[in-house]
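Q: How would the structure tokens look for this protein?
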Amino acid sequence: MLANILLVEDDRTLAENLVKYLRTEDFSVVHAFGQTDGLKAFEDGEFDCVLLDISLGDGNGFSICSEIKKTRDVPVIFLTASADEGCTVAGFEVGADDYIGKPFRPRELVARIKNAMRKRGASPAQPLQCKNVCVDPVKGIVTKNGEEISMSALEYRLLLLFFTNKGILLSRDRIADELWTISGEFVEDNTLNVYIKRIRDKIEDDPQKPQILKTVRGLGYKAVDE
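A: Here is the predicted structure in token form.
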């Protein structure tokens, strides 16, 4: 993966299309619909760049950008349909690194993301460790005790999703939505069970008593947060 991106956008169709495109460009993307969800996602994760819509149902991108800049020096790019010069000025005043108007060309956005990260000196996504298992988003590999584990593309994507959200309960619906976006194939409950079992067989010392990928009965799964 080139980088971890947080997208805060309340236009569902635009967000879904943008997430799909950015993932084809090898970015890892977390999507939040509004100000509250966006700030929580930022607090819970590690991101190399943030894409913010200015107009949100429960707030605005200016407030999110201001809060982000108080804690971390992460590149922030505003996405907006407004051509108002005042909005542009306000965005830069709260610390935005760039500003792109809607509609925009996806390739231009990717170029702006890379440019903002380069200017800020943002580093590529760091390896994600959980006990003796490590996911390296840059190399796209999984290791256990330093030895590489062979995984299918979907197994890798699923494990990356869990490790990116360590300690966070992911519902079966949320996981299925992520896998749908990634693979373009419908994922049934039984199929998800099969993938979870395959992953546990590869990463757990005792797959019958998992210590890394836990089941929360009736709710979903989560990777332990050490």
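DSSP finds eight helices and 14 strands in the chain.

Residues 106-120 form the longest helix (15 residues).

Upvote if useful.
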